[in-house]
Amino acid sequence: MKLRRRTSIIVLSFALAIAGFFYLYNQIYFSHGNSEANVMFSIKKGEGNEEIAFNLQKEGLVPNRFYFLIYLSGRNLLGKIYPGDYMLSGNLTIPEIAEIITNPQKVFVKLTFPEGWTAEQIAGRLNENGFDGGAFLELVNNPSEDIVSQFSVLADKPQKASLEGYIFPDTYKFSKDATPEGILKKILSNTENKFDEELREEAKKQGKTVFEILTMASILEREVSTPEDFQIVSGIFWRRIAIGQALQSDATLEYVLKTRDFQHSFEQTRIDSPYNTYINKGLPPGPVSNPGLETISAALRPKKTNYLYFLTDPNNLKNTVYSVTFEEHVKNKQKYGL
Fold it and tell me: Is there a smaller number of Cβ atoms within 10 Å at the N or the C end of the chain?
């Protein structure tokens, strides 16, 4: 009788152990966190395994922090997590999360592209941070039909035009293994969100395309520097186009010459280029930088004034001096030593 009871206890204990094993295995390998969780998860330098596990559970990324620690211990991954930012989802299993946060290539790099930068400058920053900026620039200059077709903000872009102007200036986070195409698509998704339907409808009502608005905004971005000046100069430039006067924008010459000269010589203003708005009327063939929301808004909502000329004070770049007549403009140039 005692032997039978002992045998039953052994069998029951074995069954419970097997059940416990499969339960634990299921929780680790098949269980997910909160399916609605989708976050940029940050791991700070110096954080320990238990603190990371607690934060994962807190964010709804793992069902239980102890299961996560058990998995790390069993795989000899304790202390092998890399600090940084990771894009994680509650749909991931514990092994999938562990694989990501112990792989330095999955760390996200934070990059900022300032307003008014060209695609070439942006490619340079990508290069500086370990990405293939050359391949990125090639995609910008020669975007495939597949990429263009995915974004409605590109609908009125001329077929042969590059994506200069559509690379929305912002702070982005890219994983270290991000491809040039993946980087470009992420940026264009942001452009699509920022230049939204409301702004596109406003442009349409004015009889202008998104491409034209971006082109004007890109010039404003490199001509002046304050919101009020953006609107005033926008009004001046649209008025010049309306009356058939050349824009005479130094920003467009800078794009051709790849310089940031404060002013240009007479010989430079004669350079043979479709982007030279000293000798060609109307807008240049496309954007000369990548504008932000303030200049896009100014291009759509120009301020009407009597001004037709302006210059920037060389001693105070935020001081823009306006003139109604050319004679007045000449006097101001002399006054400011230009």
Answer: N
SS3 309: strand
CA–CA separation, 296 and 269 (whole Å): 26
How confident is the model at residue 34, as a pLDDT? Answer: 67
Among the listed residues 27, 31, 76, 81, the one whose alpha carbon sits nearest the alpha carbon of residue 52: 81
Domain final residue, candidates 106, 137, 170: 106
**Domain stop point among 153, 178, 194:** 194
- Name the residue with tokens 């823009």: 320
Q: 64: which 2 tokens?
A: 């239980």
Positions of E strands within the chain: 38-43, 84-89, 108-112, 171-175, 309-312, 320-323
Q: Where are the alpha helices (DSSP H) in 196-302?
A: 197-205, 210-223, 227-243, 250-257, 293-300
* Position 32 confidence tier, pLDDT thresholds 50, 70, 90: low
With respect to residue 74, please indicate whether it lies within any of the assigned structural domains: yes
Among 44, 86, 79, which residue's Cα sits nearest to residue 61? 86
Q: What is the reported pLDDT for 27?
A: 53
Helix/strand/coil for 17: helix
CB contact at 8 A, 241 and 282: yes
69: containing domain: 28-106
- 122, 162 Cβ separation under 8 angstroms: no
- Measure the CA–CA gap between 335 and 312, rounded to whole angstroms: 12
Indicate if the pLDDT at residue 134 is higher than 90.
yes
Radius of gyration of the chain (CA): 29
- For residue 14, being part of any structural domain is answered with no
Residue bearing the bigger pLDDT, 247 or 6: 247
Question: Are residues 251 and 309 both part of a single domain?
Answer: yes
Residue 28 is predicted with a pLDDT of 56
What's the mean per-residue pLDDT of the chain? Answer: 86
**Digit-coded pLDDT (tens) for 213-239:** 999 999 999 999 899 999 999 999 999
CA distances from 245 to 191, 251, 313 (A): 31, 17, 23
